[in-house]
Amino acid sequence: MNRILRSALAAAAVLTFAAPFSARAQQMTLALDGQSPTITVPKSGVSMDLTAIDKTADPCTDFYAYACGNWRKNNPIPADKTRWGRFDELGEHNLYSIYTLLQQAADKPATPLQTKYGNYFAACMDDSLADRLGAKPIQPALDKIGAWTDKATLSKLLGTLEDQHGIGLFYNFGSEQDQKDSQKQIPAVFQGGLTLPDRDYYLQDDDRMKGIREKYIAHVTKMFTLLGDTPEQAATETQAVMRIETALAKSSLPRVEMRDPANVYHVKTLADLQASTPAYRWADYFSSIRTPVTTLNVATPGYFTAMNAEIQSASVADLKSYMRWHVLHGAAGNLSTPFDQENFAFFNGTLSGQKEQAPRWKRCTQATDRALGEAVGQDWVAKNFTPAAKANMQELVHQLEAALGEDIEGLDWMSPTTRVEAQKKLRAFRDKIGYPETWRDYSSIAVKRDDRVGNAERVAVFNDRRDLAKIGKPVNEKEWGMTPPTVNAYYDPSNNDINFPAGILQPPFYDFKIDPAVNFGAIGVVIGHEMTHGFDDEGSQYDPQGNVRMWWTKEDKAEFDKRTACEVNEYGNFEPVPGQKLNGKLTLGENTADNGGLQVAYVALHKELAKLGPDASKPIDGYTPDQRYFLGFAQVWCENTREQEAVRRIKIDPHSPGRFRTNGAVQNSSKFAEAFSCKQGQPMAPVNACRVW
Questions:
Q1: 455, 458, 460, 605: which could join 1 in a potential S-S bond, CB 3.0 to 4.6 Å?
Q2: Rounded CA gap, 476 and 466, in Å?
Q3: Which GO terms label this protein's molecular function in UniProt (predicted)?
Q4: What is the rounded distance in angstroms from the CA atom of residue 178 to the CA atom of residue 6?
């Protein structure tokens, strides 16, 4: 599926998480497709875990070790995970609650909507049928590629594969908000075409990356043999795949450069694009996907010049191999067991260190939520998110917005001119909490209980057509980019809105019964984090209406850049894996958001404590409100990560690991040093701390 989401390209402004769960669980046996596996049912988490604290650690030396030390010792990574943390703890709890809905809908649906998502789940669970079918479900797409012989018709073939199967090859095409006029939805084409996680996996020559490439070649070869190739054919096809993907990787824009909106905005006429890529007939592609285009954003022009060169130089046979591979890879997890297991062994095992594949019920629950999330979400919200919870969250958001407004007013480095513009942007924030006001209509999608791959293809086509239909239409500002049960949150710069799915509004992030200090340290910092994204290195380039526009004075922008450079240097010296430091520029936006969120949530907490009176400031369990605030913040980031996964995230993840999200933010907070009586010069109270917001 070729889709572009403006928020994904413009700003990596999600809070981020995965989804493990706690050891506090019970055993329960449930029927799954006639089988009766034992499922570990996670219990609800807790918002303040005193047992997680390691009091042998010095909070002024390593606060993360102090707040999370015992939790990390007592929560090893499950075999089916690459990372295990408090986010995962809640995610696993939500996953099970979704599963119970899906299982019921698959067995005894009560509504047409339940029939649809119940059928999707049932088809996903049917491994026996998948094993009987082998690779047959993708044969129609492979046959189209096999019948292709003329490079002049490549664009028509790619359009047909997208329009009929939801398969996008070589690049991504879709709608996006025009960054110069956010009320306009324009067509955009963006680099793509790679299988490995990042261009560095093809280009870096250290021993680790060389080893991964060797294993990738072995994996692709094995997959082609499973598809029916002889070993010799498979080896030849694999070399073609590797050569083409490496050429595309060389021309792909690095992730750090994509953080600047100006680097991915080049509006051109179709004639201009065609002139730069003479070997590829764009008009035929757009005709095949039934989408008229006269002008579009060519986000990464250099990539398409290189793609054109590859089309010109590669043989028809090599291009076929590349396309066959991407069709096979895209469907591998839905095919028979040999394909599924080989796909897992490389992408989860080799790349991330996962020891065992997650059970089918988990994978199918996640797949159904991804495919029909707002169908499942309607029923999930009705059972798991009350109107009172939404109202309370709205009040918290208002409190944090007020605190950020005060923070902006108090900045000594910002001039009155820029301060006025910053306040305008803050007042223009749209708050989206829990779930969409209008649910997505999936009635046009045919979902069958005996067509796992077909269901996935039809959903992909539905999403593709829905995205392309936005071109030239008014922006739907009420649309969501995450499903309701998701344990996450995000800021969308083009819409200037902050989004908090219902899934995160539970312990350890939010608890009706806990004291304000813990809630403000957890969900309060999450709220502040998303708001600060509107003022990080990317978000700060967007004005209140979501347009890219310089609303800063030149002098203030220089002061801002000086302060963010401090964070780049600080986090760029953190070393999650020996010899592997964080990329301070890649993680800058998230680090700025963490630091800003911690600052403004602290201000909001103290306004709340003042309203509640003296009793609210008394210690609880031996900790003052300020100490509980910082512990509440730190403990949502307790986690353990496999080394392979840690290395992968260093390359691609704009978020710092939990240890450095915690220590990096608190060591820049003078209030933290006061709360734990840290002396200046200790690791958590450095002499030259960084401060942006």
A1: 460
A2: 12
A3: metal ion binding; metalloendopeptidase activity
A4: 9
SS3 299: coil
| Lookup: tokens for 368 | 């159904």
CATH of domain 135-334: 1.10.1380.10
Tell me which residue has tokens 């369990």.
Answer: 621
Q: Is 554 exposed, middle or buried (0-12, 13-18, 19+ CB in 10 A)?
A: exposed
Residue 324's pLDDT is 98
For the 1-47+60-130+355-461+478-693 domain, the top CATH level (class) is alpha beta
Structure tokens of 218? 């072995």
* Spatial CA neighbour of 658 closest among 62, 35, 253, 13: 62
Q: Do 18 and 91 form a contact (C-beta atoms < 8 A)?
A: yes
What DSSP string runs through 673-686? Answer: HHHTTPPBTBTTS-
Distance between CA atoms of residues 18 and 80, nearest Å:
12
* Separation of alpha carbons 646 and 354, rounded Å: 12
Tokens of 587: 């993680």
What CA–CA distance (Å, rounded) separates 2 from 460? Answer: 9
Q: Looking at the whole model, is its pTM more than 0.85?
A: yes
Query: What is the distance between the alpha carbons of residues 8 and 175, in angstroms, rounded to a whole number?
Result: 12
Domain residues of the chain, as ranges? 1-47+60-130+355-461+478-693, 135-334
The whole-number average pLDDT for the span 446-450 is 98
Q: Which of 464, 594, 608, 645 is catalytic?
A: 594
Residue 588 and residue 536 in contact, taking contact as beta carbons nearer than 8 Å = yes
**Residue 32 pLDDT greater than 80, yes or no:** no
In this prediction, residue 19 has a pLDDT band, given cuts at 50, 70 and 90, of very low
Measuring CA to CA, which residue among 228, 258, 601, 559 is closest to residue 412?
A: 559
Contacts of 456 (CB under 8 A, 6+ apart): 166, 331, 334, 367, 371
Please give the Cα distance from 173 to 128 (Å, whole number).
36
pLDDT at position 26 over 80: no
Q: What is the pLDDT of residue 1?
A: 36
Catalytic residue among 530, 556, 639, 645: 530
Q: Is 594 a catalytic residue?
A: yes
